[in-house]
Amino acid sequence: MNTSNAAGAMDPNPTTLNPDDTIGRAADYIMKNRYRNVPVVDENFCYVGMFGVNCLLKQVIPKAVFMRDGLRNVSFIHESFDDLFQRFAEVKDQPISICMSHEIKPVAPDTPLTETMMQLYNTRASIPVVEPGTCKLLGMISYWEIGEKILAAGLTAGENKDA
Amino acid sequence: MHNAHQADVIFGLSPVLFAGSLFVLTYLLIITERLNRAVIAMMAAALMIIGGVLTQEAAVQGVDFNTIGLLTGMMIIVGITRDSGVFQYLAIRSAKVVKGDPWGILVMLMFVTAVLSAMLDNVTTVLLIAPVTLLITDTLKLSAYPYLFAEIFASNIGGTATLIGDPPNIMIGSATGLGYNDFLFNLAPISIFILLVTIIPIYFIWGRHLKADPELIEKVMQYREIDAIKDWALLKKSLLVITLVMFGFIFGHDYGYQPATIAMFGAAILLVLNCLPHNQEKQSELVARALGEVEWITIFFFIGLFILVYGLESTGLLGTVARHVIELTDGDKTVTALSILFVSAVASAIVDNIPFVATMIPLIKNMAASFGGAEELVPIWWSLALGACLGGNGSLVGASANLIVAGFAERSGQPIRFLPFMLMAFPLMLGSVAISAVYVYFRYL
């Protein structure tokens, strides 16, 4: 495996969600595991989007806030956790497909490492690696994955020097 | 003829045929919405010059810089003022004044929308009011449709009331010399009456069914509108400048100051007040932001249209059409005024009222001699203003503000569909135009 491209930086066995999973179930899952984003794939393991904490936040805050040209200032709204939960309860049985994000663009496995890093920095979220010409999800690249690999490279370099 | 160097033959066509064809093509392209309207208008203006109908100097003469200046100045003032949060404050306050009662909120939001549309512009008003409306209806678990429908009507009716309320009025005022007070005294009374009358069918169609859970009403009452004001210093500066500009509009006309001068002066004062306390870098940021609030698409659309219509007028085609219109109405001013009122209303419901009014202005001016002078045209100008502004209510594409509201409705998951809207709106619009016809007839004819 070429370690200087996206394929070398990805986790090949990422956790995934299905577009038909309910928002309630997905919320439980990402909260329990402290995930920020989880890729959503269909029955053919085709990447269709990302579901994460931003989607959950969107569901519990009034719609008028997040829509284009929405409210710029919301400091006059004073809500409790109960109010937020009521809004969540209204959508928890809906499928995650209604709010998954399509903004995070996948990278190809042969994307050079620097370009992959730049995309990770710009996206500020884990990025999916997808087979070129198809939509098959090959893996995910997270900050942690990359960070661990950079640090491991430092350790290896140190060991080689010592030897 | 405005152009001393007009070509005799353009691409094998006479100037009249070339300009007429270009005009019709431009209109068709604007209606299809395949290309941005500013791009279409700019292309048409360029072709008027390249085709030899106008020289560049003549084209510049055709641009009504009073309209452009007034629009730009007001956009800057409103763009800066909106950052203070005052418009959100007004919307929330109006909901609380009626103790969160759903029907009361609808009426209050209608009034706030109408008043702001009269003082500012329709598009900005609905951009500010619609999100608050969606928040309130979401909280009350009510359909936003009746509220948004009422706000569309209120914005177009409110905009009819003043010189600066709606672009057709700005153009008419600029072309005729009719001032802010003329519009206020002649159009505001009938606009207020039409607004009040419009509330009645809205009540019977939706209002009487609007009910909300007391617990939800309590949530609306818990909004702290005072917290909507983000910047008190900016609010004070903005209100001071808006007040000065209103005084300028009311009294400046007598001293020969055009509305554009007053609006641009007001914008400049507000920019000075806003920039003064900051360093150069921050000043650049604030100025860039304020200028970024100007709807340049609208401004360039106007510029292109003015050149296009000026080119058309320079060929003498509009004069010929005007003579035919007078022949059709037997030179009867009453028939002409009322025909223009209804035709403007129906046309403005179907196509953008800005190009329509831009074309009608020189056409009506050409009728002056037949009616015994420019002063005799005044009832016709009021008919055009009432028809073009109120006609915007006839369909979803009748006014830019309608489309903005429809966009909000779509994004909130409660879309306003073209046909159902028109089935309700068109008869209501015709009713308001019928009231205007009675008003014009008894007051001016």
Using brief descriptors, characterize the structure shown.
heterodimer; A: 163 residues; alpha+beta; two-stranded antiparallel ribbon; 42% helix; elongated; B: 445 residues; mainly alpha; 22 helices; 0% strand
Describe the structure.
The complex is a heterodimer of chains A (163) and B (445). Chain A is of the alpha+beta class. Chain A is 42% helix and 12% strand. Chain A has helices spanning 6-9, 23-33, 53-60, 63-66, 81-91, 113-123, 143-162; strands at residues 37-41, 47-52, 127-130, 137-141. Chain A has a two-stranded antiparallel ribbon. A two-stranded antiparallel ribbon of chain A has the order 3-4. In chain A, a hairpin with a 5-residue loop joins strand 1 (37-41) and strand 2 (47-52). The longest helix of chain A has 20 residues, at 143-162. The relative contact order of chain A is 0.21. The model of chain A has no long low-confidence stretch (mean pLDDT 88). Chain B is an all-alpha fold and 445 residues long. Chain B is globular. Chain B has helices at 15-32, 37-50, 56-62, 65-82, 86-97, 102-119, 122-140, 145-160, 167-176, 180-205, 214-221, 232-252, 259-275, 280-292, 296-314, 317-328, 333-350, 353-365, 368-371, 378-391, 400-411, 418-444. Chain B has 22 helices and no strands. At the A-B interface, helix 4 of A face helix 7 and helix 21 of B.
